[in-house]
Design goal:
Blueprint: E1 2-6, H1 12-26, E2 33-43, E3 53-62, E4 67-74, H2 77-102, H3 131-134, H4 143-152, E5 167-168, H5 170-180, E6 184-189, E7 195-200, E8 206-209
Parallel strand pairs: 1-2, 5-6
Antiparallel strand pairs: 2-3, 3-4, 6-7, 7-8
Helix pairs in contact: 1-2
């Protein structure tokens, strides 16, 4: 487990509290987890403008069931850690139930004789290290300045990211979108070998964008 701070003095007591709470939240899923990254951050208040917000973000990499993310923002860092751990545990139970039904769970409660993992079964690790993608606001900038900064580069490509798209079904892509908490997810459909996009519909459910050739 890696615990790091952003715009915050990471005291030993906070670090220990985060490690204990996150460790407890994932303890029932041992054997199916490869890595856990925890980021604690503060914005607003004494460190910036607006109401003080203390955020806890957890990114968990499973062995065969993709990436699970959870985050929470509270006035207290300890409350933020508590609530995000509850949210992460609920997400992991959901992932575990689905994986067991498919015979893909590697931890306790999974099928016997499935301790070995093929390299092809491991999902691609896609992390977003861009601070502007991770945080809603930059500490120290008033909200109007933040809006102007965003609008000034609205038509400018600020970053290019390359990653491998592992073939998967639409159902698996929807699961990954849900686990990551994203509004959309780009993937390579396993049967057609096409790059497609699943997205959350405002009304309900998900939609799929399928490219077609112009006739």
């Amino acid at each position: 487990m890696v615990v790091q701070g952003h715009q915050i003095q990471l005291t030993p007591s906070i670090r220990q509290y985060a490690e204990e709470k996150v460790g407890k939240a994932v303890s029932h899923f041992e054997g199916a987890i490869k890595e856990v990254d925890v980021t604690l951050s503060v914005s607003g208040g004494d460190s910036g403008h607006g109401k003080r917000r203390q955020r806890t973000e957890i990114t968990l990499y499973t062995l065969r069931n993709g990436i699970v993310r959870a985050e929470d923002v509270e006035e207290s860092m300890y409350a933020s850690i508590d609530l995000v751990c509850d949210r992460l545990a609920r997400k992991l139970r959901k992932v575990k139930d689905k994986a067991i039904s498919k015979g893909k769970w590697q931890g306790r409660g999974g099928p016997r004789g499935s301790s070995s993992i093929k390299q092809d079964d491991v999902p691609p690790e896609v992390t977003d290290e861009d601070p502007e993608m991770q945080y809603d606001a930059e500490p120290g900038l008033p909200e109007p300045d933040q809006a102007r900064r965003r609008s000034s580069g609205i038509h400018e490509v600020m970053r290019t990211k390359n990653f491998f798209l592992k073939p998967m079904s639409v159902e698996d892509a929807v699961e990954q979108c849900d686990q990551l908490g994203h509004d959309f997810y780009v993937f390579r459909e396993s049967i057609s070998d096409q790059v497609q996009v699943v997205y959350k519909r405002r009304a309900a459910g998900y939609g799929v964008i399928v490219p077609v050739n112009e006739e």
